Amino acid sequence: MALPSALRVLTIEDDHTTAEEIAAELSARGFLVDIAHDGGRGLDKALNGHYDAITLDRMLPGLDGLSIVTRLRANGISTPVLMISALSDVDERVRGLRAGGDDYLVKPFASDEMSARLEVLLRRRQTPALIVTLQVADLNLNLMDRSVRRDGCILELKATEYRLLEYMMRNSGQILTRSMIFEAVWNYHFDPYTNLIEVHMARLRKKIDLPGLPALIHTVRGSGYMLGLQP
Description:
Structural class: alpha/beta
CATH superfamily of the largest domain: Response regulator
Number of domains: 2
CATH topology of the largest domain: Rossmann fold
Shape: elongated
Largest sheet: 5 strands, parallel
Strand order of the largest sheet: 2-1-3-4-5
Order of helices and strands: EHEHEHEHEHEEEEHHHEE
Radius of gyration: 19 Å
């Protein structure tokens, strides 16, 4: 599902260099970006600006990120919030998500991963709440009976392979970094030394990319993986 053009993003970040880097990355991808450098101004903009998404620094002068996202949710504002913080402890990540954040990115971060996470949040919001099947080319995943078919043939997947495929199909056409996949499928903080993703991706490829059919699972060198007809 392609994202519509001219989506508005609010970046709440007190470090001016980081804020400008975020704005430059998102602007290059077609977003309209507003910046607030303190918590009070950021909350005011978030409450009244009608934004499509928000990037929110965890530590801010005046009003911290947790307080901002808590107030937004209390006011019925469901705008997707990507929390960004130098606090990498699992407990801090859990606090951010429980306060109402939709995703949590640890500093320092790669700008392309930041934009990828934001695009995933936006796609998720645009997807209708009630979905019975996911379809990419001739690959079909039925969410009701958890069956998977490719070119009409039933594929037998293990539980982790199914979760991996479902996540990739929900975000088809989107580059997914290893950390995004690891956190979404295994629900753990990403370990850069693990080979779990490579092992399961190889097994999934053998079952999905059948002989004689176009490859659907692609490795994007230096970035991660993507599911779709083209790499």
